[in-house]
Design goal:
It is built from five helices and eight strands. The chain is α+β, with helices and mostly antiparallel strands and 144 residues long. The strands form three sheets. Strands 5-6-7-8 form a four-stranded antiparallel beta sheet. Strand 1, helix 2 and strand 2 form a beta-alpha-beta unit. Helix 1 runs parallel beside helix 2. The radius of gyration is 17 Å and the shape is globular.
């Protein structure tokens, strides 16, 4: 984590590439780097975007979450009628995400902010399933 910060402070890079962000101090360093306008390309410990969203340590990379209590009329407008819902706290560190499911099978989320917001709303989000030489539109279903 300290090396990541030092690289930004001492070298003024446009892009930093990091392998395997997993510890809280690495997450915080990644947030700091992104706030300074440096593009960050990284692998993050976790299998799927929903797993990352719900991870207490690494969830802040995709915006974090907190519980919001809705008013009665607001809850009534929701299809599930819930008064207590999860919402994203801040801007995600990453603009896009690629889930590596198998060596030759990936799921591409073009817009992490929208994907996280849709996940919390229980909405189906369009994504792409990628394999060698092939891209297929798929529906990313919350909770799956």
């Amino acid at each position: 984590a300290e090396i990541m910060r030092e690289a930004v402070e001492n070298q003024s890079p446009h892009v930093i590439i990091v392998d395997e962000i997993s510890k809280p101090e690495e997450v915080e360093a990644a947030r700091t780097i992104a706030q300074r306008g440096v593009q960050l390309i990284a692998t993050v410990h976790g299998r799927t975007l929903p797993e990352l969203i719900n991870c207490r340590e690494r969830g802040t990379l995709v915006g974090g979450q907190h519980t919001v209590t809705l008013s009665g009329p607001e809850a009534e407008r929701r299809s599930d009628k819930r008064k207590s819902v999860q919402k994203r706290i801040r801007e995600p560190v990453f603009g896009c995400a690629l889930e590596l499911h198998e060596r030759d099978r990936w799921i591409w989320h073009e817009n992490v902010q929208r994907a996280v917001d849709y996940y919390f709303e229980g909405e189906i989000l369009d994504a792409q399933e990628l394999s060698r030489g092939k891209a297929v539109a798929v529906a990313a279903i919350p909770g799956e």
